[in-house]
Amino acid sequence: MTRTEFISRLRQGLVGLPMSVAAEIVSDYETHFEDGVAAGRSEAEVAAALGDPARLARELRAEAGAQRWHQEKNPSAAAAAVFAVLGLGAIDILILLPILMGVIGALFGIGIAVIAVFITGGGIMVGGPFLDVPGGAGASILAGLGLMAGATSAGALLAVVTIGLVNAIVWFARLHYRLLKPALEPQANTVATGDVA
Question: Which residues lie below 8 Å from residue 140, measured CB to CB, with a gap of 6+?
């Protein structure tokens, strides 16, 4: 594969990343080709050492998603990290996908329930004094506050569990994939030390 073909396929795989990030990645790999050719290697040898550009792009997208998650810690960054890892398309991800979707569905359901309990608590707190409830107005206000406090606590716990799940997915991806470690660098260092010796 020539340098032009490699860079073209890499660019296609990086579509969707911010343009500045994609341009920086492409520039890095252009440099790898320049260094490899300067060391006497052919473009085909450099391309073979770097690996499949489509897979490399998927790995780089996963790493970019993981970095965004570690910097921003918001739902958008979490979704980007999860989908980037799923985009790697590995067999183990496909096996874990049904389990992961079940867990995400359960977390979503619990989140909806937390919101419903909070709203119900607010309704009881506001409407209770105007209704004839056992224990009187004070009991309904306290019951409403208790429900709202419980829902808030459950929501905080749900947020911690969700952050932990996203961190676990990112950890899994980093454990199973070689990210941002081009194969050319170790060989270039070996060639350089071999020339000195």
Answer: 124, 125, 127, 128, 129, 131, 133
